[in-house]
Amino acid sequence: MTKTSFYQEMRQKSDPVWQAIFNHPFVAGIGDGTLSQDRFEFYLKQDYIYLIDFSRVFALATAKSPQLSEMAYFATLLNATLNMEMDLHRRTCAAFGISEKELEQTAASMITLSYTNLLNRTCYEGNLADVLAVLLPCAAGYIEIGQKLKSAGLPENQFYQDWINTYASQDFADLTQWLKDKMDEYAENTSERYKSRWFNFYLTSARFEYLFFDMSWKKEMWPSEIAL
Question: Measured between alpha carbons, how far is 59 from 198 in angstroms, rounded to an integer?
Answer without folding.
Answer: 20
